Amino acid sequence: MRRTSTEWKSYLKEVCQRILGLRSSAEYEKCLDCECYFGLLFYLNKELIIVDDPSSNKIFKKILPKVFTEEEAQIHACLGCDPCPPAEWTTEMIEKLES
Ligand SMILES: [Zn+2]
Ligand SMILES: [Zn+2]
After folding, report:
1. Alpha-carbon torsion angle 71, 77, 62, 64, nearest 10
2. How many angstroms does the Cα of residue 77 sit away from the middle of ligand 1?
3. Distance between CA 28 and CA 10 in Å, rounded?
4. d(CA 30, ligand 1 centre) in Å
5. What is the pLDDT of residues 26-37, one digit of tens each?
6. pLDDT in tens, 65-80
7. How far is the CA of 52 from the centre of ligand 2 (A)?
8. Which end of the chain has fewer CB atoms within 10 angstroms, the N or the C?
C-alpha cells in the first residue's frame, strides 16, 4: 500500500479508532502499559505526521494525553498477552506498507 494512497490514510484512521476502543476495554487494560502499545503509538505517530490527515490527528490526540502523563517506569515488556492487539496492529501496519 502506498503512503500517498487514500486507502492508507483511511487505514491509519481505522487503527486510531481501534486504539480508542482498546482503551475502553477492561480486558486489554494491561496492554496499555505494554511496550507493544508504545511501539505502536510511536510507529503510528510517525506515519500520521507524513499523512497529515486532520481527522486522524484529532483521534490520535485523544489517545495521547494518557500516554504522556504516564511514568516511563510503568512501561513494561510485553506480558506475552495472546493476542496482544498493539503488537498485532504494528505488524499489520508494517505488512500493509510493504505490500
Ligand atoms: Zn500486551
Ligand atoms: Zn505485547
Report:
1. 50
2. 8
3. 24
4. 6
5. 888 888 888 899
6. 666 666 665 778 898 8
7. 27
8. C
